[in-house]
Amino acid sequence: xxxxxxxxxxxxxxxxxxxxxxxxxxxxxxxxxxxxxxxxxxxxxxxxxxxxxxxxxxxxxxxxxxxxxxxxxxxxxxxxxxxxxxxxxxxxxxxxxxxxxxxxxxxxxxxxxxxxxxxxxxxxxxxxxxxxxxxxxxxxxxxxxxxxxxxxxxxxxxxxxxxxxxxxxxxxxxxxxxxxxxxxxxxxxxxxxxxxxxxxxxxxxxxxxxxxxxxxxxxxxxxxxxxxxxxxxxxxxxxxxxxxxxxxxxxxxxxxxxxxxxxxxxxxxxxxxxxxxxxxxxxxxxxxxxxxxxxxxxxxxxxxxxxxxxxxxxxxxxxxxxxxxxxxxxxxxxxxxxxxxxxxxxxxxxxxxxxxxxxxxxxxxxxxxxxxxxxxxxxxxxxxxxxxxxxxxxxxxxxxxxxxxxxxxxxxxxxxxxxxxxxxxxxxxxxxxxxxxxxxxxxxxxxxxxxxxxxxxxxxxxxxxxxxxxxxxxxxxxxxxxxxxxxxxxxxxxxxxxxxxxxxxxxxxxxxxxxxxxxxxxxxxxxxxxxxxxxxxxxxxxxxxxxxxxxxxxxxxxxxxxxxxxxxxxxxxxxxxxxxxxxxxxxxxxxxxxxxxxxxxxxxxxx
Length: 607
Hints:
Elements: E1 3-8, H1 13-23, E2 31-38, E3 41-48, H2 51-58, E4 66-72, E5 87-88, E6 94-102, H3 105-114, H4 127-135, H5 140-149, E7 153-161, E8 168-173, E9 178-181, E10 186-189, E11 201-204, E12 209-214, E13 217-222, E14 227-228, E15 233-234, H6 250-256, H7 258-266, E16 270-271, E17 276-277, H8 286-290, E18 294-299, H9 302-318, E19 322-326, H10 327-330, E20 341-347, H11 353-364, E21 368-373, H12 379-384, E22 387-389, H13 402-420, H14 426-448, H15 453-460, E23 466-470, H16 474-489, E24 493-497, E25 514-518, H17 525-537, E26 541-547, H18 551-556, E27 559-563, H19 572-589
Parallel strand pairs: 18-19, 18-20, 20-21, 21-22, 23-24, 23-25, 25-26, 26-27
Antiparallel strand pairs: 1-4, 1-10, 2-3, 2-4, 5-6, 6-7, 7-8, 8-12, 9-10, 9-11, 11-15, 12-13, 13-14, 16-17
Helix pairs in contact: 1-2, 3-4, 4-5, 7-13, 7-14, 9-13, 9-16, 13-14, 15-19, 16-19
């Protein structure tokens, strides 16, 4: 959730550290700091707020070519300069930046305080520089390894020693770190975005690994000191494209990138002639597909909603038992893991801690887990070994948009694969394949003429409560629409299955309450109309997203938003679009920080 950038090379470190922090601003944070090696020790500057405030504070910095920086998302202690990273030991000659949580914080802190250590912050992170100092006898790597033996919890850390200006030490356990290998420089980041300005040759650290970074490269060790062989990868070109271009915000840019991101995800995978799909990363033969007894999609937030749509499609088209599970709950309820089922870990970043925990639980119990992720080389991708990259490109806005439709695209491709081994004929498979490949065109068609979104914005921005309703494939989209409006505009709202409305939420309706009903033409159309009548009878302001050409739906609605016609199982690709635009424009109207909403982080790497 926090951001780390460290640099050792032949150029001034400070401007490169600030530039790296700007590249990871989208992760979400509340304070930032930078530490570089100076002639007399470690030069440290910290501030609360945005990177721009830190940039003004540090100015041009020093001429030092070694340093590290951090953006913090508070877990232990309030948002203060004292709690911001980097943190120093008592001598001021060891600095640490840290992502994660030290679970035995109180035990270690009591031990260090008993030895006379005085703490300056409320954070768990400050334990690390003091603990490293405790074990330091001239060898920085040994001191870090020994300190980490005492630590329980998750961490991605960078360590700077004033006495050793020729190295930076990094270590990872449960919190991502990537090392970039340049010409005469080496860069450490918590995210590929932090290092793409320097190089695309990278090494992803695995859990319980420690790396020594020098200007010439790095050497990776296990926590027991054993050396690890080099395993370089090359970053996808897309990681260099995270710029807003002509758009005011990244969120709007990413909404309008969806025709292309969906097309990229499906390209080369959907085969019209065979009425089938091919997902090479799954390595599943037709015989193995036939043997699948069920599918479970694991995800959090937007990824969970995409998993819900995917599960519904699997049951609808492939007639295979399928469900979506909230990953943060899955691992703690002692789940029954079926060896006949396939488990998909759905995550944009591939680093979501709760989803990683679910992967570990499935694997521990003998299940087969595969990843559906956007970031090549991410931890979920590496831990699963098999899976699908959605190829949506960098998603910078905290509120996910194009990742949602890309994840659905990958799940639909798998659905077609599974359905063709079961109950879909060649002709039926071809129909599904054509419909899938046509989705980017229909998404573009809607975005070119989005309808009266601003009229809906005027209704919701001062509402005490907004209700999103949908049935079947529209229910997960109702959840996603409510999530987006909460994330971006901070408007109180909830998504609900329309059939459940009269079992509770109807009590919230009063004159003028905005009710956003997703009602594309499907088998539930008549039931949906009945629900709309119930809503209007309570004086609510009814906003209906419906198929273009459905005159009856348009006549019922107070505000009508038509979408292009597609098969019912593909309607989430279209019904979600006006909800994304609504959240964006409502946030804009209310003066919110669109790309970096309060209290949120892009990549949730702590539980």
